[in-house]
Amino acid sequence: MLGGALLLRRRLFDRAATMRLAKPAAFGLYLLVSVLYFGRPLWGHLTSRYVGQGADPVDTYMWSLSWWPFALVHLKNPFLTKYLWAPTGVNLAWTASIPLVAILLSPVTLLAGPVASYNAAMLLAPALGAFCAFLLARRVSKQWWIGLWGGCLFGFSSYEIAQTMGHLALTLDFVPPLLAYCLLVGAENAATAAFPWKTATVAGLLLALQFTIFPEVFATLTVFGVFFLLVSWLMVPAARARLLVVVKALAGGYLLALVITSPYLYYLSFKVPFAGLPNSPVAFSTDVLNLVIPTRISFLGDAFQRITRHFSGNLAEQDAYLGLPLVVLLVAGTVAFRKNKWVRVGAYCLTSVVLASLGPLLQVGGRPVGVGPWALTAFVPLLRDALPGRFMLYAFLAAA
């Protein structure tokens, strides 16, 4: 009997140890994949080469990584500078200046330079996104392996790979899955609480963090978050008590985020000191064929260049490739588990995001064929200027 008790205790100890190692093991695997996949050209050249291509990494992100520590050390206004676009200057609140990221990476920047700091952020970003999606998928599925593959699907998606070509602010996409995970945990643990203070605080910090990374993603996260909650409320009446917890937590979170980001919002209210038109939503929308035909950023993408060269936008924004195998798997899974209301919610949200990403003008192989779903926002301020192709971030999250 004593031997049986000792054996049971050992098994419980081994299981607890395995559970403690589950999260570090997942993050370690994701980081290893990111370094091996994105970092191979950097080996031995961390301060002289960088992940991606083009001018954006240097002109926008490396400059910002240097600017914020410099401005704070020399007691300069970090939002307004005349070091760019002299003599008029630039309001950096209207640019992708990644302030908090620059401050957090300032030790690396000061020790090894902005190129090394930029590379560190770009290699860490896919691993962080994958790990946060892993937390969410594992919480839903209760299975480590399922969570691991869900994290891979999100963190190393076509969206992520495309954006690593030069858009650090879009590559750092770990907040949406982490926010969803925290709200899910809060709803499960505080369904009877008068107000979920802890969940609201965490949500507020995450929302503020996303705002400082890239306000555009903050805005689209808000729009699609409200949409997902509305769909869930209508399709799963039995979950309305828990959804109400989420709504309360988000309301408190947005208020906290508003307070934290108030200096940023203050400078956003200033008139932009240089003229320029926003990018066209038509030019940066998802081509229907891109959902199943890969571009050069994907495996075997070179074989389809005769088709993909006609896609609108540039290679870094052609990020919608789901692939036929995944599409078939998603459809088959939805059909097989169609009686599960949450499966139907996920399928509906995924389909809606993909349709929205097609933009205001439907394009097939680069040719316009009709009006797209996003044309409904043509008269909505801010939303009409959003780039629909970037909505695929939420499509890959729903798929994961």
Keywords:
two-stranded antiparallel ribbon, mainly alpha, two-stranded antiparallel sheet, 400 residues, 3% strand, 17 helices, globular
Layout of secondary structure:
Elements (H helix, E strand, L loop, with lengths): L1 H37 L17 H18 L6 E2 L8 E2 L7 H6 L1 H7 L1 H28 L2 H12 L2 H6 L4 H4 L3 H15 L7 H17 L1 H21 L4 H21 L1 H7 L36 H4 L15 H13 L4 H17 L3 E4 L2 E5 L20 H8 L1
Antiparallel strand pairs: 1-2, 3-4
Helix pairs in contact: 1-5, 2-5, 4-5, 5-6, 5-9, 9-10, 9-12, 10-11, 10-12, 11-16, 16-17
Quick structural gist:
By secondary structure, the protein is mainly alpha-helical. Helices cover 60% and strands 3% of the residues.
How would you describe the overall organization of this protein?
By secondary structure, the chain is mainly α. Helices cover 60% and strands 3% of the residues. It is built from 17 helices and four strands. The protein has helices at residues 2-38, 56-73, 99-104, 106-112, 114-141, 144-155, 158-163, 168-171, 175-189, 197-213, 215-235, 240-260, 262-268, 305-308, 324-336, 341-357, 392-399, and strands at residues 80-81, 90-91, 361-364, 367-371. The strands form two sheets. It has a two-stranded antiparallel sheet with strand order 1-2. The chain has a two-stranded antiparallel ribbon with strand order 3-4. Strand 1 and strand 2 form a beta hairpin. Helix 5 (114-141) packs across helix 6, helix 5 runs parallel beside helix 9 (175-189) and helix 10 (197-213) crosses helix 12. The longest helix is centred in the N-terminal third of the chain and has 37 residues, at 2-38. The chain is globular. The model is unreliable at 5-14 (pLDDT under 50).
